[in-house]
Amino acid sequence: MLIPSNTEERYQSFAERLLYRAKPDGERLLGLEFECLRVHRSDHRAAPSAGPEGPDDLVLEMGEARLKPGQELHATYEGGVLSMLEADGTHYSLEPGGQVEISLAPYVQPLRVGVELESQVGDLQKRRVGTDYEILFLGHHPLSMPEEIPLRGKPRYSIMDRRFRRVGELGPHM
Fold first, then answer.
1. Which pTM does this prediction carry?
2. How do residues 15-33 score in pLDDT, each as one tens digit?
3. 30, 58, 63, 148: least buried by Cβ within 10 Å?
4. In contact, 46 and 148? CB cutoff 8 Å
5. Closest to 54 (Cα-Cα) out of 85, 101, 99
C-alpha cells in the first residue's frame, strides 16, 4: 500500500483502514494495550522473568488493586505458571521474558482511556518504589540479549523460542 503524501488523503486512508469493520449501529469503544519491562535499577539489565523476584507478584498486586467489592481475580495458568490475570475488564499478561502487557478495558469515551493509562502507569511506578527494580515502557529489552533472559515456564514459549531461533539472527528477539 502506498502512503499518500497529502495529509488529508493520509487521514482518509487511515480512517478507512481503521473503520472498515466498524458497525455504525454498534457501540464504538476504544482500548489500549502496552508493554513494560522490569529492569534492575543499578545497571538496567533485565529483572528475573520468574521465581520469587519475577513479575508475578506485581501483576497480582495490580489486579487486586483494580477489584471492586464483590469482584474476584480471574487468573489463567499454563504449565503451572501465571499467564494472564483479568480484573475489572483489564487484562495483565506475562510475556515470554517477564514483560508485563496491560490491555485496558475498552471505553466509550476516548479520554477515559487516557485517564486509565495514567492510573496504570502511576500504579506501576508506585509499586516499584523501594525495590531493586524500575519500569521501562518498552516491549523489547534494549540492553539484555535474549539468551540472558530466561523464558517463563509456559510450554508455548519454549515452542515459540525454538521456532524463532530457526528464522534468523533476530528471531530470538521476537
1. 0.78
2. 777 677 666 676 778 889 9
3. 148
4. yes
5. 99
